[in-house]
Amino acid sequence: MVDSKSRGIISPATDFNVEHVISRLRKAMRGIGTDEKIIIDILTGHSNSQRQIIQKKYKTVYGRVLKDDIKAELGGHFEDICLALLTPLAEYIVDCFYFAIKGFRTDENCIIELLVSLESMKRRTLEERRQMSMSRKSKLSSEELEERKKKRKLYMKNYRAKQSKQDRAYRLQQMRQHASEIRATETKQAREARLQQVSQHAAEIRDTESEQDRAYRLQLMRQHAVEIRAKESEPDREAQYNQDLADFLTNGLNGDVKKLVSMLVTKEREFYAEADAQLAQADAQRMLKDGLYKSWKNEDFLPLVLTTRSKLQLQATITAYEKISGHSFKEAVKAEFGGSLRQSLLGLVECVENRSAFFASQLHEALNGPKTDDNTIIRILVSRSEVDLADIYEWYHMKYDVDLCEAIYADTSGDYRTILLKLLNPQK
User: Fold this and answer.
1) Would I find Repeat among this entry's keywords (predicted)?
2) What distance in Å separates the CA atoms of residue 81 and residue 418, rounded to the nearest whole number?
3) pLDDT tens digits, residue range 157-199?
4) What is the CB-side half-sphere exposure of residue 326 using CA atoms within 13 A?
């Protein structure tokens, strides 16, 4: 079993000049045509934390949302990976969980892959990010919220009374621009509340506006409604974060896989504990005596070992098991379990034995299946780019005697291929 020191490929730019970066991005997407090379160079030449700074500065300077501009200019898997790179890691992982559960069928392998590969600190970050909206709302009482609404209503009433027709038309145009900026992050609940406010606002100004003003306003509202409908298929992140993480992840699962995922989320793993040889021997002997299936069913012994022991401890236990039994632990899993649980347990064990080799095999399956699994390729390259992608790259070559860049080049095309290759080798 190998426990190599993790090495990422993407690192923070040492000469980071955010003003220069956003200027290049704006020029790349302004006017006719798009300079995809600049977009690729910037996204692969900066770390995730730097990309968040770039997005904020872009919004401040240009009054535009970078992700919206990317969506307007790009398409296909190239757009998908660019948006993934612009998303904070914890939020991106939650989105991956969401689509693994809400897709045509629940992708248990993806869920296990994401859970077992995350350190405890990153898992806590997911929980904190998921509850962010809840903490914001809890700071204001219902009376304070109602008072703020009343003050805003009175202010707007006085403001409208002083406006000319030209000012009103300009204000409506600004409202439309503002609406387009918030749609990318707006939840279903917030959207419904905003539409209700728009309706109330329209009722308040009808008594004072001319027929021409009304026609112009209705035209803007119709355009606004069309744009809203285009966004309604996107995941409701607010709803995602407001659920208990274990409940959210197990919502589409059943039986033993549901139990395994729930325990991976709720149980504390001793990530930094040293291996205890005596404990490893005792755990291995108990699993051999009862058999893996009974160890799973009786008192949840096997799932507790798999979800709470440290990585080093699990490696020691598996080694002890194989030494005593004379066969591999994975062979025993294949013999005693079936279906989704077998696949999930094998994925977990492979991650424990060698995480980089596990991801290399996932990439190999994604590239060599009956159909290219672009979601898996994007997920692994984006989420591991700053963690251990260099190790994954090397293990791919060692396991399959094929260079990962060559495999991706042969199975992809266009700008999508270019950005994947740049993530693996930013210097080219």
Assistant:
1) yes
2) 11
3) 665 565 566 666 666 666 666 666 666 666 667 777 767 776 7
4) 0
